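Issue 218. Parser rejects a valid record. Input:
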Amino acid sequence: MDNYQNIDMNFITISSTRDCLKDHYHNGYELIFITEGQSNFVINNSSYDFCKNSFVFINNVEKHKMYPLETPYSRYMVIIDTDYLDSIIQEPALLSIFKIRPEAFKHGFKIQDKDVEKVKTLLNQLLLIYSEKRAFWHIEYIATFTSLLLLIYRQYSTNFPIMTIRKAEQRIFDIQKYIDHHFKSDITLDSIASNFYMDKYYLAHTFKDITGFTIKQYILLKRVSFAKNQLFYTDKNITNIAIDSGFNSQSNFIRLFKKKEAITPLQFRKRYRKG
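Output the parser choked on:
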C-alpha cells in the first residue's frame, strides 16, 4: 500500500458528554482543530482542557484519549502517515510540532480569532480533496496541508518546540531520522554513536534533551508503533510481526509490548479489529 493511502480525515460533531474516546492509536501524525465545545485530552501522562478554536497535535507513538466537557463538540481531524509526511516536508522546525517532545511541550493551543476563518478555509479544502479523491489527490492534499502547517508556524511559532535549527539540533534530527529508517535493525546507543562519530554519553543527553525521549525509549516506541500497525492491518502471525518490527524474539516482543500497552499483541489485535 502506498503511504499516502494512510491519510484519514473527518469532521464530526458529538452531542453527548458520554461519547468519549478511550485509549487508542493512529499510525500517523494527528492534527485536531476544535470548532465548537470543549474537551479534555489525556496524551501519554499529560492532561489538557481544550476549547473552541484550539489545535491539538499528537504523534504516532503517543497514546491518547478524549472526553467531551461541553457539547455540542465539533472538530476536524487529520491523520497523515509519518513516513509519507517526513519524506515530503524536510524542514525540521515545521515537523517539530509532531516529532519533538521536550519537557515543557504542550500538545495544543488556542488560535486568535483573526486566523479562524483562514484555518477553516484550508481545512474545508482538505476535506473536499479527501472526499473527492480525484486524480493525484494526494499531491494536492499534502500541498494544502503544508500551507496550513506554514500558516500555523508563521503565526504561532513560539508553540513549536524548535523555531530555529542549530547545528546540534540538526544532528539530533538526523539521528532521529536514522532511527526512523533503521529501527527494525539491531541498533543501539553504542552503534548509533559510532555511526555518527559522537560520544555516546553526549548523544544520550542531547537526544533526550531535544526530543524528550531516551534513544532506547524512542527505538522501542517506533518498534511498538510499527507492530501495532501490522497487528491491525495484516494477518501475519505474532512471531513474524515480532521479527519484522525489530524484536529479537517473540517472547521479548510480547513482554515489551505488554509493558508498554498493558495488553498482549494478540489482545490488541482482537480489541482494535472488532467489527
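Fixed in the parser; the record now loads. Strands lie at 7-14, 21-24, 28-43, 46-51, 54-58, 64-81, 108-110.
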